[in-house]
Amino acid sequence: MNNNLKWHQTTITKKDRQRLNNHKSCVLWFTGLSGSGKSTLANAVDHALYRMGIHSYVLDGDNIRHGLNKDLGFAKEDRQENIRRIGEVAKLFVDSGSIVTTAFISPFRQDREQICELFNEDEFFEIYVKCPLQVCENRDPKGLYRKARSGEINDFTGIGSPYEEPTNPALTLETDTESIAKAVEKVIGLLVKKKIV
Ligand SMILES: Nc1ncnc2c1ncn2[C@@H]1O[C@H](COP(=O)(O)OS(=O)(=O)O)[C@@H](OP(=O)(O)O)[C@H]1O
Ligand SMILES: Nc1ncnc2c1ncn2[C@@H]1O[C@H](COP(=O)(O)OP(=O)(O)O)[C@@H](O)[C@H]1O
Q1: Does the predicted TM-score (pTM) go above 0.80?
Q2: Where does the record place the APS kinase domain (predicted)?
Q3: Which one of 11, 32, 64, 197 has the minimum C-beta count within 10 Å?
């Protein structure tokens, strides 16, 4: 850390912005295998919040890797840096008063725990989008599992690279048995219970 850098407290605080918005801000961190439903659910929740007049935003793995993180690949260190940067971006969104939904595989438990530590209590919710590998593989929305099985991608999560399940998520959404609508209801229920909206 450069000793010549000093943190500036902004004039308008997070609390000011939350008061103006009439709701609190937080991050809903969706984690799960490729094809488990992270993007689908993050967007469905975002849509539900939008209809409720709530300030929200989606940060999605594929999109962020087209811009901010286009210098990163899928080796362990790259995935760690990917998640570290997203955590910092999510913190800015929370500071700006929004509810941010994130859709990254974020396969390593330690990385997710480090992100959690950036936030105050009830500002970070880990949501496990749980779906058996076989079901994700059958869905194969981008044809990537097929490429992984044929050896075209050798570090694909769940096949050539590990996924560490959350041990104590705020919510688990089982997308092989639960509908999208039910999952959205559970997430909004969590936000209401925590008095965020
Ligand atoms: N090797 C490998 N492993 C996993 N995923 C791969 C890989 N190569 C490309 N993709 C595509 O990239 C998306 C995952 O990016 P993430 O930023 O979420 O990954 S990570 O959190 O850094 O592990 C992932 O998107 P989702 O399917 O939406 O999860 C894939 O489309
Ligand atoms: N209950 C469900 N929840 C979420 N996605 C589902 C569900 N049932 C089927 N799907 C489908 O599974 C696929 C999940 O893809 P996607 O959301 O891109 O996953 P991820 O972002 O985890 O890679 C989509 O085609 C979606 O329509």
Answers
A1: yes
A2: 24-173
A3: 11
